[in-house]
Amino acid sequence: GRAGHEAAAGRAAGGPGVGAAAAPHAGRCRGAHQRGTRHRGRRCLSPHRLHLLPAALLLLQECCLQRHDPRAAAALQQNLDKKLFGQHLVSKVVVKAVRGFLNNTNAKKPLALSLHGWTGTGKNFVSKIVAESIYKRGLQSKYVHQFVATLHFPHAHSINLYKDQLQSWIRGNVSVCPRSLFIFDEMDKMHAGLIDSIKPFLDYYELLDGVSYRQAIFIFLSNAGAEKITEVALDFWRNGRTREDIQLTDIQNALSVSVFNNKNSGFWHSTLIDRNLIDYFIPFLPLEYKHVKMCVRVEIESRGYAVDEDIVSRIAEEMTYFPREERIYSDKGCKTVDAKLDYYYDF
Fold it and tell me: Could you say which residues bind ATP here (predicted)?
């Protein structure tokens, strides 16, 4: 997917770049979980035989996932618990949804998750962790395809071209690997109506032109609906209840309605919502001061430094918080933590 995206950046039309969609990723090893299959000089082995490969060859080994590795869900849970802060709803829903879908041998439709919340609350991080739980190379996997609205679909006058390209890209890649993962970032900046072009792929069809899309996963990322999420969180706070008291049922319906009616969202009056093809609308709550400090600590540790609580506090205090009176939530979440750490450490 990344090669196609890089090509897209240079296209005059600015589309997602699907010139190779008719036969993308020709190096795929079909049925790798079942048997050793030679393909263009490479052999894919079942997971229990991978130890037979020399280390150098193992690094090159990547096959389309056909059967779920039970360790993936545990790794997904562990990574979210360790690295995602203040998002109890996200951890619970994402793990259950992904695990259940991967374990379901007779899914009736693809899995579609829509992640909503302010910048810096963890949406891109969660999509990255999901990709890594399915494919070892994560976002770098040739079976993971990431679209950014402002990069791949910048021009309103080219929307019909984008629709054709997007359909071709999805059709071609799912034909090659049924367990393909598609991530759509900046849905709040996507032109209304464009995303409806993928509606057939998310619906309950067994086959479309001989291709089944029921094993694919679609993840949508958006800032749309963040105001509604904050409204619910503030209501709980003002009523003396903790954020952990918030349940998905307290937000999900209001969130989907808010996104559906948001004229500045790619989901505005979308048939994906109208036809209930989005399985979960997952709210990312705005982060508090204590969560920002958690982010700072993890980032310091990841750089190999001992945690200095004075620096942790200073960085957290440099953030701006809202609402103006209460100053509860960071307006950038943990987005600028990495850059702020550069100021305090001489690398």
Answer: 117-124
